[in-house]
Design brief:
This protein is α/β, with parallel strands linked by helices. It is built from 19 helices and 15 strands. It has three domains: 114 residues, Fumarate Reductase Iron-sulfur Protein, Chain B, domain 2, CATH 1.10.1060; 168 residues, FAD/NAD(P)-binding domain (3-Layer(bba) Sandwich); 153 residues, FAD/NAD(P)-binding domain. The longest helix has 27 residues. Keywords: 4Fe-4S, Iron, Iron-sulfur, Metal-binding, Oxidoreductase. This is NAD(P)-dependent oxidoreductase.
Length: 480
Amino acid sequence: MAQQPMLKFTSIPRDMPEKRAAEERRTDFHEIYAEYAAAKAAEQSARCSQCGVPYCQSHCPLHNNIPDWLKLTATGRLQEAYELSQATNTFPEICGRICPQDRLCEGNCVIEQSGHGTVTIGAVEKYITDTAWDKGWVKPISPAQERPESVGIIGAGPGGLAAADVLRRAGVQVTVYDRYDRAGGLMTYGIPGFKLEKDVVMRRNDQLVQGGVTFVLNCNVGEDIGFDEIRAKHDAVLIATGVYQSRDLGGPGAGAEGIVKALDYLTASNRAANFGDSVPEFESGALNAAGKKVVVIGGGDTAMDCVRTAIRQGATSVKCLYRRDRANMPGSQREVQNAEEEGVVFEWLTAPKGFTEADGQVAGVLVQKMRLGQPDATGRQSPEPIEGADYVEEADLVIKALGFEPEDLPKLWGVDGLEVTRWGTVKAEFTTGQTALDGVFAVGDIVRGASLVVWAIRDGRDASQAILDHLNQSAAVAAE
């Protein structure tokens, strides 16, 4: 009788890829996890219970067919596993690296609930597609038939690129406009290399170029080209700009030198460390933590990226201030653990109320100690200040990682009829992304607010199907 290839969670323990020692990894920007070997990937995939209702799949925004590609990996059918993974996810090797699996697929794994330790879904997903690239299974896009219609996509982040991939495979002519000199959005310039090495993003960009997608880079819509001009050039337009406007922080001393925005800091680091670009603000020390006492304000994944980057740049100390406790922080607990291993100190239940300065340069953060009070509308306990418990945290560099807000696109682009919500996000139909303007769609963070890469990919794929429907309807009307 053939041996059962799956359900080995009772006999095989959970085993993540080996993590490099903190002392080693804190000196470079390489990814911290090693790759699985084939035997280890198959072994860990075999732990899947193949449950009747796969919560891993239902809690994945892309509804990836996780149980099936785990079984294919466990039985050595790796190319089929890749093809199945790629069928629902434009960038599986990127999601395998940066998705918060502990909150999504792995956090809802049935065997995790039974105390056996979740299947290492993200690590296997990464292994499958990295192997596919190595083996040459990933091919350039080659549409079966070309279509005459064209679509303009504003924004080369995960949402825009996912839509470009789907539309190009359908034969549509695609042009992507982006303000940066490299495509990828926050995957390129926001997320540090120790979480997502940049050649992983660049090879996907190259695949799109080889497949016929046209990129117009260093292009600011509203300045270098008008939104109405883009609409006139294309049969449909997709807005996928993301949200890049940093939330600010006031208080005494808020204008001092050395208080910087997280995205400015991370972009400078990514350019210098991962691409070798000349970055004057980095070279001058303005956006470089080397030799400095660093304080990062915020508790999300962007804050974790900042603290871990500062460690690698050679900061003398790195502290993270967050107004709630560890259990209530929005960032990944896995990232907090990695940061602590690398030497970051977390100051829970603390909030800034101002800054001290010396000769115009920041010297410290005025910190207000907090406690958790009654739950707010979301059910989370609201932080409230403890009177008389203030202190000063010394700092040479303060990084504000307080989240992002949308830019005012109607004003920025001078466009009438593009409706926005009271939060400034673009109003768009659920699943289709259709806006109030005919033939104009919107996806990702500019619709949702700051969210996850995987949700942007989902939105981009969904909207591309709606765009194809729109193009087909337009073609049918024209043919009548």
